[in-house]
Amino acid sequence: SIVHTKAPKSHNFTRLNNASMTNKLWNYILWDAVSGSVGQIHQCLQQLTQSNIGMIGAKSCLTAEKNTYEKLLPKMNKELKKLGMHSVAQTQFIAGTMFYVRSELMKPLLAYSEKDFTPSNGKIKNYTLAHTLERIVAECVTQKGYKICGMPATHPVRIWLWRVQIAVSHVLYQKKITGS
After folding, report:
1. pLDDT in tens, 133-172
2. Using N-to-C axis directions, what is the helix angle for 73-82 and 129-142, rounded to 10°?
3. What is the pTM (predicted TM-score) of this model?
């Protein structure tokens, strides 16, 4: 599996699939869906080996929202062309880059090396090659005829309680900002 870390600021809120989440919750959701229990791990691996599913990740992080890829489409299509794949007008991917995937589907990515990536000071920057590849990985799956599967959370009540806490924090944080 691959994981794409999120900034640790607890007051950063992200909207994905009409839900608000902090980076900490996002990481938890990504991990919980694919490794929240031994049974969940077995279920993911079984689906990969016995079906037309090529990638499995968190259902609530599987997105096709236009605002998550629109600005990256030109860069995506340029990279897809380099990899010998066809261009796309839209895409679906697992935001956060944590998933199980059939390894043979990732062969096109062997065209990249460390020198293709610009050094980072540890801060997340939008529209980088890394963010482009986060979306291209899904194209490596779907353009070979496989599906992307979203797994439900292993601990949905815990995630729901966390979302309630976030909603309350979000309101309090907004009041703090607008009140100053």
Report:
1. 889 999 999 999 999 999 988 877 777 676 677 667 766 6
2. 60
3. 0.78
